[in-house]
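User: Here's a protein and a ligand (thiamine diphosphate). What would the complex look like?
Assistant: Let me lay out the input and then the predicted complex.
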Amino acid sequence: MFSNQIRYTIMDELECAGFGHYGGSLSIVELLAVLYGEVIDATPENVNNIDRDYVVLSKGHSGPGLYATLALKGFFPMDWLKTLNKNGTNLPSHPDKNLTPGVDVTTGSLGQGVSVATGIAYGKKAIHSKGNVFAIVGDGELNEGQAWEAIQFASAKKLDNFILYIDWNKKQNDGWSDEVSKSGTFEEKLNSFGFFTQMVDGASVEEILSATHKALRVHDRPACIVLNTTKGQGIKFLENMENNHHIRPDESMMKELKKAKEELKALLD
Ligand SMILES: Cc1ncc(C[n+]2csc(CCOP(=O)(O)OP(=O)(O)O)c2C)c(N)n1
Ligand SMILES: [Mg+2]
């Protein structure tokens, strides 16, 4: 399964780097598998085609997840993953469109990616270009007011070529999202902002795929899919860890992570 390959590759890449954003990279694995495995038409060959689909990873700290996916899809050599976040790398911890083939938008400053994504969707409409824009935003990231300005804009302009995925993993970098800032229910909220909104199990490739197909059939408004996920998804040891946002594993932690990686490897063979 593509999701297992992505998850294994993330674990390998971060092990090599010695530290990184495990939690938020792992919670979007199933989504990345659906987008790059089943839905979007972006390939290394059609990067210059304006009619292609765009993906904006607004929660840019999950770059290792995107890199694993792009490498597996042949956008750049798998070897590059060993250079994650090292001096001179093409894979900085947060995506940079000028450095990494397949990265559509430079992100990392939270909140901004949603604005850029709606701008691309609006631009596509203006020049009658085909293709859709898929944006991935974090639940903590939605504390940023700028994201809501973009959401209102998408609704006003009826951007039905825009799909927003909210990675509702309930945590941000320094605690539970609801304890940092009360967001309310994303599903109700996005509905009230004029989006066609669905909520799915974010660990289910089937549910994400079917919701995405449904969203693509909506032709009068933008769509939102709230992904009910777990931070550190798919690696029990990490799911159970309180602070799993950015980890620099000590020796005993590394042992656990290596064990989890080997278990994933068995699923690939
Ligand atoms: C504008 C801005 N403020 C603060 C940060 C630091 N920061 C990095 S990740 C993060 C938490 C993000 O939480 P969430 O969006 O829920 O991401 P996930 O749980 O998916 O990792 C913060 C505050 C940032 N990158 N950009
Ligand atoms: Mg979160």
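Summary: The chain has a mean pLDDT of 97.
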